[in-house]
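Request: When convenient, would you put together a sequence paired with its structure tokens?
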Amino acid sequence: MLRQFMFRQFSPRRAPCSLVFFFALSGAIALALLSNGVTRALAQASHPQRESEKTGAPADVARGKYLVESVAVCGECHTPRDSNGNPDRSRWLQGASVPYLPARPDSDWPINAPRIGGTPPASDADMVKLLTTGIWTNGNRLRSPMPQFRMDRSDAEAVVAYLKSVTPRQ
């Protein structure tokens, strides 16, 4: 139906100028869209990295906090619960019993989620590797229910910066 409409509207027999106009307009729109994308890519490539991205500054910690608390929701497993069953913010990310059971019996199911706040359980490089590949320091994949994250390097570094900034409340 669209083809019939276009053929009827832009038929060379009816108006040869309308067909030329249609293709000229289509080409102009395509060129505008392409040049805008190239301009944006060049603008992004020409700007040096922001200072906070280089140094692990407060912006990285804030981004890491957002990723840990709102995206990956690490506190659901890595934080002990209070008497009402809510994550205990005074012991935020200090390790806890895994609150989930497997759907089928699994002898490899972890009982505890480790402490990750303050001093993470591995070096920064190993934590970044874990968050970007899902591989732990022993070369094995993480066990369920831990998600096999595939973060990009800058997100993983921001998460590690935040984890290192966490101090339990006394």
